[in-house]
Design brief:
alpha/beta; 13% strand; 8 helices
């Protein structure tokens, strides 16, 4: 069963502020993420004002078709200015160049992400993908919350609303144990998934599914697969009920080293590539 709304942008900003104290090495990235969330909150508020509010009974392949990039173009350049406040130098230079592009060229770039975001397709320019992801993901998330999923969605490894890959796993308290969910990389939908199962290839042999936990992040697991050589990070809410999966995942920078050294590739990267 798909989870309901989940934490809003205010909650994400608040969690990032807390984690900056807990993990000083991630403070710069988290400050930038707070600015991104502020931009995404404004975009969501605008979309809520201008888009139809009736719920639609839509299925996975059609969510992307509902995204009209023209809806975000009017405030894209304002967003670039806001993001430049905390962005790394190279991104600031890119934002300046991007803001001088024609609306047609900008719309094409955004539409590319609408088509390929959350999939295994590699972007031609990671900076353009980051920008598109920043302004389109809140649009996708806004639409996903209005969509009525299929009555009994299959617990597959692709999002039941937009067919994207998961960006992070989530373990939630259920009875005496925990239930596993996957969180969509494109529309932030959560859906239930089997506990001992590779989130990419479906491997179910426990001996082929190594798990790594670092002392610094006791509530975050790196779940690898020796069959497809991919991994996903999962945030265990039974160990830290205050965690916000999208935010805590961003802060877990050192965990990428274990996966890299062990030869695993992430199923899908997060917004800031941490």
């Amino acid at each position: 069963m798909t989870q309901s709304d989940g934490p809003g942008y205010e909650k994400r900003i608040e969690r990032a502020q807390f984690l900056k104290t807990a993990y000083p090495f991630a403070a710069e990235i988290l400050s930038f993420y707070q600015q991104i969330c502020s931009v995404q909150l404004r975009i969501t508020d605008e979309l809520r004002r201008i888009l139809p509010k009736q719920a639609k009974s839509l299925y996975a392949p059609t969510l992307r078709d509902q995204i009209d990039v023209a809806a975000v173009l009017p405030f894209l350049r304002e967003s670039l200015i806001a993001l430049s406040t905390d962005a790394p130098g190279p991104l600031v230079v890119f934002f300046k160049d991007f803001s001088e592009r024609s609306d047609q060229r900008v719309a094409f770039s955004l539409q590319q992400y609408v088509r390929l975001g959350g999939t295994e397709e590699r972007p031609e320019d990671s900076r353009a993908e980051f920008l598109a992801r920043t302004v389109i993901d809140p649009y996708a998330e806004f639409l996903a919350r209005q969509i009525i999923p299929p009555p009994q969605p299959a617990a597959g490894n692709l999002c039941p609303k937009c067919a994207s890959r998961p960006v992070v796993g989530v373990l939630r308290a259920e009875g005496d144990g925990g239930k596993r969910f996957l969180l969509c990389a494109f529309c932030a939908t959560e859906w239930e998934f089997r506990r001992i199962y590779c989130a990419r290839c479906g491997e179910s042999r426990e001996e082929s599914l190594p798990v790594f936990v670092a002392e610094k992040f006791p509530h975050i697991r790196v779940e690898g697969c020796d069959t497809c050589h991919h991994f996903i990070r999962s945030v265990d809410l039974t160990k830290d009920g205050n965690a916000v999966p999208l935010v805590d995942d961003l802060a877990a920078i050192p965990l990428a080293l274990w996966a890299e050294e062990s030869g695993y590739e992430r199923i899908h990267g997060n917004l800031l590539g941490t």
